Amino acid sequence: MKNIYNKVKHIALSVFLVVAASSCDNEIEDIGGAQQNYNTAYGLIQANSNLTTFVKAIKLAGLESTLDTADNYTYFVPNDATFDAYLVANGYVNDLGYPDINLVPVADLKQLVLSHVIKGVKKRVAKLEGVEADYLTTGDYATMANALNPDLYLLSINVTNNVLKVNGSDKEAPGLDYYGTNGFVNVLSNVIELTPPAPSITSLSQVLASPGDVITITGQNFVKVKSVKFGSTAATFTTVSKTEIKATVPADFDSYALIVVETEFGVSAPSGIGLKYLLYEDSLKGWGWGWGGDITWESTEKVSRGTYAIKKVAEAWSGLFMHSDLLLKASDYQFVKMSIFPTESTKIMVTINSDTGDSAKGTTVTLVPGQWNNISIPISALHPELLTDGNFDSVFIQEFSGGTITPSSILYIDDIGFL
């Protein structure tokens, strides 16, 4: 009789253990936003047997007391398989080749854990009818890691049709909202890394530059900048913010350079400044002539950059022809560039390799009066197919307003060149 009782007792205990184990696995029921009063968000993570690596990371990083509080939280937690794959990919494996969370430096582990937590809010993914809750929307969010290190990248979240993606992962996160008393836990199929991406340059404050000029470089991810280079020459620079750098143009800058920004996290794609060939800077690299109004080739009255600019009295249909000392190959360049300051509204026609007003070979540009117009004309708009052997050595500019310009109108022209 005693043996039968012991067997029944053993079976009952086994059933209890199976039930207990089942209640702790990753099949915790998503109850659609109904509050699970018996557990906090932190408690839900501890209770999920598929999130054990993340729990170990919390403990090793000494973050239990930081996270186990009554504050509101939204967690994004990688499951064990995902976290283990991350450890292997980053070389955190033991002598047998198995992933080992104990090998991750504590400082890195702390940042990694906090990168997965937004404090102060509790937001779910899937919108359910009849459930009132705050919902995650597509955008960038600051995590607890950002609060400690503002140089870190923000958490990038995309929610489309109740599908959650985090930091550009091409794997859809399950997005199941486990709702505790103080927040949501979303189980992910990717590990969040908030390391800033490589920098990028979006614009430069100057199209042209001279040695000693201080230019503004605008872009993204200017974090822990190591160098700013004009070609192979390192420039003196100041990082103003994550999106702005002030750089001094090096003394050996000629007329063109490719600028790159290097940070501890990568190198930007190059951005060109200046012109590959300047036909007119402070003087004409060749010879020229014109008609229909006086020309001053080195005027100091109004200058875009440097010391001199061309002053052309712009009577109706008047023109200006400039011949280069060098024969240029059209395929080496993409744009004709120049800066023009008109004293009144007008239009010009520009051609290459033509000393007549043949508009079939050129293109027209309308000028805004009273300011420098920085003009960029694609070489393709100047019919390079009509050039002999694809080469050219001249630029022609003609007043083209249709005869409405006044006789006293002036065009100041500076920095004519090719990029």
Description:
The protein has 419 residues and is α+β, with helices and mostly antiparallel strands. It contains 7 helices and 29 strands. The protein has helices at residues 2-23, 41-47, 52-60, 64-67, 80-89, 106-114, 144-148; strands spanning 73-78, 117-119, 123-124, 134-135, 139-141, 155-160, 163-166, 177-180, 183-188, 200-204, 214-220, 225-230, 233-234, 237-241, 244-248, 256-263, 266-267, 271-274, 277-280, 286-291, 295-299, 309-313, 319-329, 335-342, 346-352, 363-367, 373-378, 391-399, 410-418. The strands form 7 sheets. Strands 19, 21, 22, 24, 27 and 29 form a 6-stranded antiparallel β-sheet that branches. The radius of gyration is 34 Å and the shape is elongated. Mean pLDDT is 86; it is low at 1-37.
Percentage of residues in DSSP E strands: 35-45%
The biggest beta sheet is recorded as:
6 strands, antiparallel
Specify Rg, calculated over alpha carbons.
34 Å
Count of helical regions: 7
Distance between the termini: 99 Å
Unreliable segments (pLDDT under 50, ≥5 consecutive)?
A: 1-37
Structural class: alpha+beta
Helix share bin: 10-25%
Outline, from the CA principal axes? elongated
Calculate the mean pLDDT score and round it. 86
Count of DSSP E strands? 29
